[in-house]
């Protein structure tokens, strides 16, 4: 079949259907892909031969047969390969290993040196990958697709532009070339863009075509989806947030988590938060936005004042986002999202006054600190689905 015109398109149509379905029959697949019965069966049998689809016991064997000839049943071989989604942040690497449907097999997370040079950063990613594979007794030969997210703009070729203090090249020291030997299919993306993909596939944006994800940890980052399309820009800089430093009452591109901790340390140093306060008794390096927001939620006045300031900042930032992109929803994402609900509730009250368009809904992500890695898994699965047929027959997926 592979040599006939249109055969590759038929294989691709059936494989895409199988990737999104559970167990299926040819009668299930035919109306979905628009192929004849004979072409459907030929494509299914070819994919079985490639090791990408398996035949299951027929309907009679599983007690579902009623009358006539029992239907053949099939499913994607989700164990035909593995994918990796990696969040290569400034000071951490979180790695999720999954099967071809994106079902998680193992997760690791490591702290790394935020000032590491290119060789050390590449080594950190390699060590994280190998540790995750070892957790399930796998090796790099089992990998089909890898996607890595970095805190820098990334263009379509996996490059990041120069930066005034060198941060973007440090975050992305030619990582696409580094990860390509790990798997036949490799993809490098901006971390906020991957957070947007995660929210669209598994989070708060599953039912909208217009949304912005505000990644709000150490620095702000934006993943922007308009009319169902993830925006990238010429250099991968669509959604870059350095302009936030020009916004009144914001003044810095640091994310909410970093900013809340910074304001708290300033308040401690100035005496606005007294020395006997729980926050003042913490080691400065251990103080986090989560500590502040939890105390604010419990009614602590000093922490509440900082939370109120964060609400005003979030309202202003969301107003600017709403004016630029007119999204239906803005999702505050990343580790800080777990404790940000009170801040969001207050920001919603003032948000309509920040823009002339109808205010977008403002919500907290439910995907937590792993949002970028979750999005990277989705991107790796998508890349595998789009590219796996180009690897056959040179690569065997037979069990």
Characteristic key phrases:
12 helices, 5-stranded mixed β-sheet, single chain, 399 residues, alpha/beta
Please, could you describe this protein's structure?
The chain has 399 residues and is an alpha/beta fold. It is 38% helix and 17% strand. It has a five-stranded mixed β-sheet with strand order 5-4-3-6-7. A five-stranded mixed β-sheet has the order 10-9-8-11-12, with helices on both faces. The longest helix has 25 residues. The two termini are 22 Å apart.
Summarize the model shown.
The chain has 399 residues and is α/β, with parallel strands linked by helices.
Q: Profile the largest sheet.
A: 5 strands, mixed
Q: Tell me the total number of β-strands.
A: 12
DSSP helical segment count: 12
- Strands of the widest sheet, in order across it, are 5-4-3-6-7
User: Helix/strand-derived class?
Assistant: alpha/beta
Give the helices and strands, then pairings:
Blueprint lengths: L6 H14 L5 H8 L3 H14 L2 E4 L16 E4 L5 E7 L3 E8 L4 E8 L6 H17 L8 E8 L16 H5 L3 H5 L5 E6 H12 L8 E6 L3 E7 L2 E2 L25 H15 L18 H9 L3 H25 L3 E5 L7 H10 L10 E4 L6 H17 L12
Parallel strand pairs: 3-6, 6-7, 8-11, 11-12
Antiparallel strand pairs: 1-2, 3-4, 4-5, 8-9, 9-10
């Amino acid at each position: 079949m592979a040599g006939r015109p249109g055969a590759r398109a038929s294989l691709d149509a059936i494989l895409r259907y199988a990737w999104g379905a559970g167990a299926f029959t040819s009668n299930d697949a035919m109306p979905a892909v628009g192929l004849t019965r004979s072409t459907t069966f030929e494509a299914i049998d070819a994919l079985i031969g490639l090791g990408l689809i398996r035949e299951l016991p027929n309907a009679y064997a599983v007690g579902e047969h009623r009358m006539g000839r029992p239907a053949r049943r099939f499913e994607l071989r989700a164990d035909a390969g593995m994918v990796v989604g990696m969040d290569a942040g400034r000071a951490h690497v979180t790695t999720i290993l999954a099967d071809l449907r994106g079902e998680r097999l193992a997760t690791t997370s490591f702290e790394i040196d935020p000032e590491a040079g290119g060789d050390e950063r590449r080594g950190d990613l390699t060590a994280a990958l190998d540790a995750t594979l070892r957790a399930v007794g796998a090796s790099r030969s089992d990998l089909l697709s890898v996607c890595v997210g970095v805190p820098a703009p990334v263009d379509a070729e996996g490059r990041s532009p120069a930066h005034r203090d060198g941060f973007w090249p440090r975050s992305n020291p030619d990582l696409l070339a580094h990860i390509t030997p790990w798997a036949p299919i490799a993809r490098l993306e901006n971390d906020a863009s991957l957070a947007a993909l995660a929210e669209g596939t598994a989070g708060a944006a599953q039912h909208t075509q217009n949304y912005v994800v505000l990644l709000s940890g150490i620095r702000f980052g934006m993943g922007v989806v308009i009319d169902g399309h993830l925006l990238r820009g010429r250099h991968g800089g669509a959604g870059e947030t350095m302009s936030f430093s020009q916004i009144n009452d914001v003044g810095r591109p640091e994310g909410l988590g970093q900013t809340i901790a910074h304001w708290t340390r300033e308040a401690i140093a100035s005496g606005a938060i007294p020395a006997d306060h729980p926050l003042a008794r913490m080691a400065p390096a251990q103080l986090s936005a989560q500590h502040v927001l939890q105390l604010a939620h419990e009614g602590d006045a000093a922490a509440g004042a900082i939370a109120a300031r964060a609400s005003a900042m979030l309202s202003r930032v969301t107003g600017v986002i709403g004016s630029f992109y007119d999204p239906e929803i803005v999702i505050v994402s990343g580790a800080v999202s777990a404790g940000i609900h009170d801040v969001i509730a207050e920001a919603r009250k003032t948000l309509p006054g920040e823009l002339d368009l109808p205010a977008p809904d403002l919500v907290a992500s439910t995907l937590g600190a792993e949002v970028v890695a979750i999005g990277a898994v989705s991107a790796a699965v998508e890349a595998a689905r789009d590219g796996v047929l180009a690897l056959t027959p040179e690569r065997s997926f037979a069990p």
